[in-house]
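Quick one: structure for this chain?
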Amino acid sequence: MKIHLSSVFVDDQAKALRFYTDVLGFVKKADVPLGEDRWLTVVSPEDPDGTELLLEPDGHPAVKPYKAALVEDGIPAASFAVADVPAEFHRLRGLGVRFTQEPLAMGPVTTAVLDDTCGNLIQIAHSE
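Got it. Here's what it folds into:
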């Protein structure tokens, strides 16, 4: 068994697609119209057949309070692996990305937390 799909709830799919592709560097995998919304996924360019991230609309009434509570408590909605957190932090900050946590080493793991502009905090991490 392996993870095929995970999702983040986004407040605007078009804005999310731009952020996750143009800024974070993912590539669009699926884009299927579903009425007002889309089945919209991105993948890592390093693993185009790997785990897909669904940019899921946050229209369900339970989602916005859930997202707000996570952000208020500083809890990331997802975690993405990077090769070097400080380098990625500097690259993304140079692109205007807002971080809520600068790189922090915790034993063999280094993390940072960013705002995805779509209502979520996202953690980036690497292990030594």
